[in-house]
Amino acid sequence: MSRLSADVAVVRGSFELDVSLAVSTGEVVGVLGSNGAGKSTLLGVLAGLHLPSRGEIVLGERTLSSPDGSVPAYRRRVGLLSQQALLFPHLSAIDNVAFGPRSTGAGRRAARETAERWLAEVDASTLADRKPAQLSGGQAQRVAIARALACDPELLLLDEPFAALDVDATPAIRSLLRRVVRATGVTTLMVTHDVLDAVVLADRIVVLDAGRVVESGTTTEVLARPRSAFAARIAGLDLVPGQSCADGLKTDEGTLVAGTHPDPVDDGERAVALFAPASVAVFRDEPGGSPRTALPVRLAAMEPHGELIRLRAAPRPGGPDWLEGLAADVTPAAVAELGVEPGEEVWFAVKAAEVTVHPAGR
pLDDT category, 361, cuts 50, 70, 90? Predict the structure, then answer.
């Protein structure tokens, strides 16, 4: 298998992707980000479906794209598995899987033997003679996984491979994909919106925002100490951006968020304050008492969250945008006592001891 190194930019209409990343041989990297962040565009560039406006892509010893030219998609040895299985409707499952080896020069018998082996690997041997229309969503995705790997790719690209599956099929296909990816040792880049996919499959996470890498680290590091709003949301934490100061963090418009500094952060350095929604208390009137940060918000939504109720915040008129989406987890009894409804103005308060301040992502 091969190491991937990419430093590329691509312009698609008004959107510009400018990304530099490296994936070690056999490593699985999860690519996360909100809609429109550039995740699928990145995979398209690596697969050869989009031509970069500048930069270089190197896979193992081969340069796939550079200012001197680009290797066409069919010669890249890059496997792409998307949300939809995209099987050829007129071919049986085994012929779909054999198509890849045949397209790279394998003989008919060798290609069929390879297809049989991969269908067995994904527990789909009994589906060999079925056409795609005779397969369920989970069955079709099993065949698509076999087809992607039957070409012996040096790089496997997964573009939200579980998004189109029903909730019953997803766990089995996720476990299957983890098993075969680990068994083959294929270098893998996986786009996903689901934090569980990253936890189960990824060694490392890269977070994209507006076409740029804003955060990167091991799955544990990113989820325990996120540096971007998107990563904080999927990790279930509240995040406030600003600049580090002696007492915690000061936002760009001057709000002080009191907290501690477990990591070295210089005063004035860009930083983020993190705290758990369960540590947020909610009041109708501005609270006083022990050292705490009190934030005036408008209650945007109330959602069940296990045995608690999650209250979502939005800015009051003229308030800062970073208040949007902050969460507080409170008991149903507390909600009843407050007697609040979406649209009302309340205060979110968090004690300094519950807030940690860390260096911000790029």
Answer: low
Residue 139: CA atoms inside 13 Å, Cβ hemisphere, count? 16
Cα dihedral value 127, 133, 136, 141, nearest 10: 70
Residue 8 and residue 139 in one domain = yes
For residue 122, what are the contacts with CB-CB under 8 A and spacing of at least 6? 142, 143, 145, 146, 176, 180
Instruction: Give which of 136, 93, 86 is closest to 116, Cα–Cα.
Output: 93
- Closest Cα partner for 141 from 77, 198, 97? 97
Residue 94 belongs to a domain:
yes
Residue 72 belongs to some domain of the structure: yes
> Structurally, how many domains does the chain consist of?
2
For 60-112, the pLDDT digits (tens) are: 999 999 988 899 988 899 988 888 888 999 999 999 999 988 887 888 899 99
DSSP 164: T
Mean pLDDT of 24-34: 92
User: pTM higher than 0.85 for the full model?
Assistant: no
| Token pair recorded at residue 320 | 């800062």
Residue with tokens 């294929």: 186
Read off the pLDDT of each residue in 18-39 and give the average, rounded to a whole number.
92
Contact in structure between 235 and 224 (CB atoms under 8 Å): yes
Distance of CA 282 to CAs 112, 240, 296, Å? 64, 17, 10
Which H or E element spans position 220?
helix 219-224
Q: What percent of the chain has pLDDT over 90?
A: 61
Range of the domain at 142: 4-223
30-69 burial code (b ≥16 CB/10 A, e <16):
bbbbeeebbbbbbbbbbbbebebeebbbbbbeeebbeeee
The angle formed by the CA atoms of residues 175, 177 and 179, to the nearest 5 degrees, is: 70
Same domain, yes or no, for 54 and 139? Answer: yes
C-alpha–C-alpha distance, residues 166 and 49, integer Å = 28
CA–CA separation, 186 and 265 (whole Å): 38
- Would you mind telling me the total number of residues written for the chain in this entry? 362
Instruction: Taking the CA atoms of 194, 217, 34 and 347 in sequence, report the sign of the dihedral they define.
Output: positive
